[in-house]
Structures are given as structure tokens and as C-alpha cells.
Amino acid sequence: MEDRYYMEHALRLASAGAGHVTPNPLVGAVLVRNGQVIGEGWHARYGGPHAEQAAIDHALQQGNDPRGATLYCTLEPCSFTAPDKHNPPCTTAIRTHGIRTVVLAIVDPNPRVRGSGIAQLKQAGIEVRTGVCARKAVRQNEAYILSREQRRPYIVLKWAQSLDGCMATGSHDSKWISSPSAREEAHHLRGRLDAVMVGSGTAAHDDPQLTVRTANNRYPQPLRVVVSRHGNLRKDSHLVTQADTIPTRLYCTGISPDQQSRLTAAGIQVIPVEPDSESLPSLHQVMQHLYDDGIQSILVEGGARLHASLLRQGLYDRITAFTEPVFLGDGLRPTDNLHPATVAAAPRLLDSEFHRFGSTISISGLHPDAARLLHDLIPDKEASCSPV
Ligand SMILES: NC(=O)c1ccc[n+]([C@@H]2O[C@H](COP(=O)([O-])OP(=O)(O)OC[C@H]3O[C@@H](n4cnc5c(N)ncnc54)[C@H](OP(=O)(O)O)[C@@H]3O)[C@@H](O)[C@H]2O)c1
């Protein structure tokens, strides 16, 4: 019970790094002695101190000696040095400051750690307990875990839909299907991921900005990504006119030299990729290029045809559909090209979550492959937290 209480606190601290630590994980840490929190910290920015060190530093600044304390940490402490790593091993800091017990949520799936942090601590005579609030810790670090495991960005498909599954009317109107608070939540989703993507149809019909616009925004702007064979973007669109200040990228297959120089001059990075079997830009190649360029996570915001391609190719980890009790009838659906013969054969999301935003219900779930990879990190008998 006590372990869960302090781990929940460490998880809350970890979430403050959202949007700032990629490609590192979100990590929070709390130092406790005699039932008192004597230090706390989190990984606040990429290259900055790790959560464990931040908690130790915080304790020392308060005049608290960490010797003999228990450290609650949402992820296994790192155990290695490398030329590309900014911080010394946290296992060394834990040992040298005389911490007696370490309680962890999950093992770090990074192959350079994966259990070696725990082994080093045990070798030093430190008691280690694992698996506390593991499910919640895994949920918090889905992007970190799944992008590493699959060597591509963590892909979230997000759309707003009517009760009959439409993303827009037949005449392409979609403003607005969901409630204002659902749309505010969508901006938080953008802020927590590295990139946001749309197809050229959405760029043309909606002229989106694809920026994070939350109250007191604390997130950096994600990379804006558009896919279009010939780079069909209007020169007065937000994507083009804001490209000199907000990183914007186009993936295309056959752009004319004129259009390419016009978009490049506006500040858009134009990247040619191979066509797929339908002569559209290969989304596998797009995702690979993004991953190789350091993009760990991407939110795909439509429209219907782009979502349909990704659904058909199974190229997603999580789908979040904001569902509103309105009927659009003969509208655009992302699922029109799916034809399962039976309910049993239909694609089904796992580990579903439901949240309410005013009149909108968001339904979110995992691709079965993603769920399996995440479940591997959750011990059978989890000392669980409150539901996420
Ligand atoms: N409710 C919501 O959450 C939501 C969100 C976004 C959009 N919408 C609505 O959705 C509608 C737009 O959807 P849409 O289906 O017409 O367009 P879309 O999915 O945004 O864009 C499709 C276009 O993207 C390009 N594309 C490039 N590579 C692709 C690939 N591999 N797979 C699929 N498309 C690729 C193609 O055009 P090129 O010829 O340029 O290559 C394709 O025609 C609008 O009405 C908008 O309001 C709704």
C-alpha cells in the first residue's frame, strides 16, 4: 500500500517531462525515510539530470541525507556509460549515497540496461523490489517502449467521429464533431508526441495549423508532417505560411521541380519516398525515415484515407476515437476499406480506455501486437495502482 502511494507520486512527477525528454523515457523518483519524503525529482529535459540524481540532489539541497532511505523510481536505474550518454550511471549515484532500498515500477527495456541496473544494485547489497504500479508505468512510457521494440515511431491514430463512425460529412465538413474539451485534450496529445501527421486531403479541406494551442502551453511544437504524392499544398495554407517558424515536412513521390523549390523556399523540408502498391507514398518508408531522424512518436490526425491506409497496413500502436452522439450518415469513414467476414476476424483493440470530455466519449485501445509487447513488462501479480 505504502509502495503504491509513493510510486503513484513518482509517476505524477515523471509526467512533468512529457514532450521534453524524447527519445528518453519519462521517469520520476521519490526518496523516503521514516515515512517522510526527503527528496523528489524527475527527468525534466533530454540531456538533463536523470530522475534518481534529481531526487538525490533535491534531498541534499534540503539538508536531507539520503543514506538509509528508500528510493521509489518509475523505471529501472541506468547502469552504463556511453559516449552518446549525457549522465553517469544512476546505479553509482544510488550506491555512493548509501540508499538502502530501491522500489521500481518496471525494468528498462533498453537493451543497454534491461535488468543490469537491478543486478548491479543487488550486488551492492541494496534491496530491490519491482513491479509496483507496473501497468501505469508502462502506459506512461508507451512511446519509449514501443518505438525501441519495433524500431519505428510509436504511432497513434486519432480522430473525432460521429456515433455512426464518420470523420466528416459527405461534403467534407468536420468542424466540429467533438466537444471543446475533447479538442483541448487533442492539443495535449499533440504536445506529448514528437510529430503530427495529416494527408493532403485534410490539409486542403481543413487548412490545419497542427500546432499545440493549450492554455499555458508547456509543450514544444511537434514536427508537422504531410503526405502527398505531388506536394499539393496551397501557398496560402497555414502549413506553408508558418513553415519558416514551425518545422514542417512533406513526404512525396513525384513532386515537380517548381513545386519543390516553392515549398523548400517556404521552409518545408521535402523528402521523396518510394510509392507503395497503390502509387501513394510508402508509409513504411515515411515512418522509417522519421525514426532514423530521431522521431520517437507520431500522432496521425487523419483524414479518412490516410487512416484507412494505416489501418489496412496495421501500421499503428494505439487508436483514440473521440465519439460524439451525432449522426453523419453518408460521410467519410476511416474503415470503409475493411471487410472482415466475421466479427471474430475483425480488427479489435485491446486494453481499452474510456474518458469523457463534455458530450464526447474517447475510446482508446492498443493494436494487439503493441499490447503483447507492453504486457511482457508487467509482472503476473502486479502490485497495481489505481486504474489509468
Ligand atoms: N474528424 C476528424 O478527426 C478529422 C480529422 C482530419 C480530417 N478530417 C476530415 O477528413 C477529410 C479529409 O480526409 P480525406 O480522406 O479526404 O484525406 P486525407 O486522408 O487527409 O488525405 C488523403 C490524401 O493524402 C495523400 N496520401 C499520400 N500518401 C498517402 C497514403 N499512403 N495513404 C493515404 N493517403 C495518402 C493522397 O493525396 P495525394 O494525391 O496528394 O497524394 C490522399 O488522397 C476532410 O473532410 C477533413 O475535414 C476529419
SSE ordering? HEEHEHEHEHHEHEHEHEHEHEHEEEH
User: How many beta strands in the DSSP annotation?
Assistant: 14
* Tally of contiguous helical segments: 13
Structural class: alpha/beta
CATH homologous superfamily assignment of the largest domain: Dihydrofolate Reductase, subunit A
Output the CATH topology of the largest domain: Dihydrofolate Reductase, subunit A
Cα distance spanning the termini: 17 Å
Arithmetic mean of pLDDT: 95
Architecture of the largest domain, according to CATH?
3-Layer(aba) Sandwich
Structural commentary:
By secondary structure, the chain is an alpha/beta fold. It has two domains: 2-140, 3-Layer(aba) Sandwich (Cytidine Deaminase, domain 2); 152-367, 3-Layer(aba) Sandwich (Dihydrofolate Reductase, subunit A). 30% of the residues lie in helices and 21% in strands. The protein has 13 helices and 14 strands. It has a nine-stranded mixed beta sheet with strand order 10-9-8-7-11-6-12-14-13. Strands 2-1-3-4-5 form a five-stranded mixed beta sheet, sandwiched between helices. β4 (101-106), α4 and β5 (127-129) form a beta-alpha-beta unit. α3 (90-96) packs parallel to α4 (116-123). The longest helix has 13 residues, at 2-14. The structure holds NADP nicotinamide-adenine-dinucleotide phosphate. NADP nicotinamide-adenine-dinucleotide phosphate binds next to β6, β7, α8 and α12. The site of NADP nicotinamide-adenine-dinucleotide phosphate (NAP) has 29 residues, from β6, β7, α8 and α12.
